[in-house]
């Protein structure tokens, strides 16, 4: 039963034939099986997925697993919901029907055929993307047709396809909705012309095209085992600059921030790419956007900060940004254990290289944060980093620091 009905289950009597025989809850998407019985789609699909081959009510064998939408019953249920609105019952939305496998096959054939007019191919790709957006089930169905094999040749059709830019962009938008295996990643990464084309798309006037290009770059970098190819992508003209611009895009398009940090992190995992990232302005972009990331993305951003702090150019760039140390200190114990670990690790690198940054960290209140950290239930790695940072900062503690109190004696800090 929907959450809105739970406190009303005594006052509101749901008609028996509106309830799913499996879950006994109000049906939201009633479908009929070959035995003539009607169930809620989610319930009967779960029943079949667990290996059952009989009708739950009649116990008769299911000769097929075709689920026919019961539109009449669904409309009756919706009318009943509307009639009981005053009692707190919400109308169930009209469900979007799952994609027809035959339709998916036809659309993919149409999209991939060079003999089909470009506008028809574009229409097929747009319909496929609409289906993929509708549900995970549709995406799973579409993915069984090896979508990358169809779409990669369209995306990288060559310079002669410039007149069909929309076809390329729509193919790219659909492609990044599906995983790529290693062979597909190598197909992209092993050819400098393909990498150069993605770099070109990173400068496109449309933000969606730029973000989709960055998404494909991230997928390829993460999916290829070849260190040489990962370096090739990171050092390609305009790649890291384009990704940095995506990070700096206004928050009105939040997907840019999410895709941008995923791509930057994937590239910075390769140490040979980190100098290029610093030169491209990644340090300033990370600090300026650090407060805007959601939890998972904030962890990835802080991991990237720590990676860039491992090279002298990265440490210098972070040291020059006035907000670096205060932000990292503030984050400790605030977001997650991983975020704490990465922020502390970055501070270790920065303070190891600069006495001024040590004083800045102490002024920002890092000592109290670290002493709380070593007594918390955080990861052992985070504690070791905190202990090392405390040792680095001892000479910078003021005389009246809490670290010199009886409660937080220096001798309590274990050696790293």
From TrEMBL:
Q: What does this protein do?
A: Functions as an E3 ubiquitin ligase.
**What is its pathway?**
Protein modification; protein ubiquitination
Query: Top EC class per UniProt?
Result: transferase
Query: Which organism was this protein described from?
Result: Nelumbo nucifera
Residue span, U-box domain: 13-87
Q: What is this protein called?
A: U-box domain-containing protein
Name the InterPro entries on file.
Answer: ARM-like (IPR011989), ARM-type_fold (IPR016024), ARM_PUB (IPR058678), PUB22/23/24-like (IPR045185), RING-Ubox_PUB (IPR045210), Ubox_domain (IPR003613), Znf_RING/FYVE/PHD (IPR013083)
Catalytic reaction annotation: S-ubiquitinyl-[E2 ubiquitin-conjugating enzyme]-L-cysteine + [acceptor protein]-L-lysine = [E2 ubiquitin-conjugating enzyme]-L-cysteine + N(6)-ubiquitinyl-[acceptor protein]-L-lysine
Answer yes or no on keyword Disulfide bond. Answer: no
Q: Which UniProt keywords apply?
A: Transferase, Ubl conjugation pathway
Cite the GO molecular-function annotations of the record.
ubiquitin protein ligase activity
Q: What is its EC number?
A: 2.3.2.27
Judging by the UniProt lineage, the source's domain of life is Eukaryota
Q: Which GO terms describe its biological process?
A: defense response; protein ubiquitination
Among its keywords, does the record have Transferase?
yes
PROSITE patterns in the cross-refs: U_BOX
> Mind telling me which Pfam families this protein's record contains?
ARM_PUB, U-box
């Amino acid at each position: 039963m929907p959450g809105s009905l739970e406190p009303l289950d005594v006052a509101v009597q749901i008609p028996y034939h509106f309830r799913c025989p499996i879950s006994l809850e109000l049906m939201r998407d009633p479908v009929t099986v070959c035995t003539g019985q009607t169930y809620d789609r989610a319930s009967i699909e779960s029943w079949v997925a667990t290996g059952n081959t009989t009708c739950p009510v009649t116990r008769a064998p299911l000769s097929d697993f075709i689920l026919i939408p019961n539109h009449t019953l669904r409309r009756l249920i919706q009318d009943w919901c509307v009639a009981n609105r005053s009692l707190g019952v919400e109308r169930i939305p009209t469900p979007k029907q799952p994609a027809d496998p035959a339709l998916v096959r036809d659309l993919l054939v149409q999209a991939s055929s060079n003999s089909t007019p470009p506008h028809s191919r574009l229409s097929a790709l747009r319909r496929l993307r609409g289906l993929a957006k509708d549900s995970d089930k549709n995406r799973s169905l579409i993915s069984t047709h090896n979508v990358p094999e169809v779409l990669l040749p369209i995306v990288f059709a060559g310079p002669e396809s410039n007149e069909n830019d929309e076809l390329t962009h729509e193919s790219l938008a659909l492609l990044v909705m599906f995983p790529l295996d290693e062979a597909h990643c190598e197909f992209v990464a092993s050819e400098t012309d393909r990498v150069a084309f993605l770099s070109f798309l990173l400068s496109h006037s449309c933000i969606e095209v730029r973000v989709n290009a960055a998404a494909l770059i991230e997928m390829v970098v993460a999916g290829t085992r070849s260190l040489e190819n990962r370096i090739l992508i990171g050092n390609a003209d305009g790649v890291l600059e384009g990704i940095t611009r995506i990070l700096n895009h206004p928050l009105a398009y939040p997907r840019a921030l999410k895709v941008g940090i995923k791509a930057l992190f994937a590239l910075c995992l390769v140490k040979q790419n980190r100098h290029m990232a610093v030169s491209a302005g990644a340090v300033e972009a990370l600090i300026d956007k650090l407060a805007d990331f959601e939890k998972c993305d904030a962890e990835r951003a802080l991991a990237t900060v720590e990676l860039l702090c491992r090279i002298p150019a990265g440490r210098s760039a972070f040291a020059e940004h006035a907000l670096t140390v205060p932000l990292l200190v503030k984050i400790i114990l605030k977001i997650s254990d991983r975020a704490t670990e990465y922020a502390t690790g970055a501070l270790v690198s920065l303070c190891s290289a600069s006495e001024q940054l040590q004083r800045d960290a102490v002024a920002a209140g890092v000592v109290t944060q670290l002493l709380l950290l070593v007594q918390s239930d955080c990861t052992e790695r985070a504690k070791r980093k905190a202990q090392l940072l405390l040792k680095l900062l001892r000479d910078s503690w003021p005389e009246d620091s809490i670290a010199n109190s009886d409660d937080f004696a220096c001798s309590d800090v274990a050696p790293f």
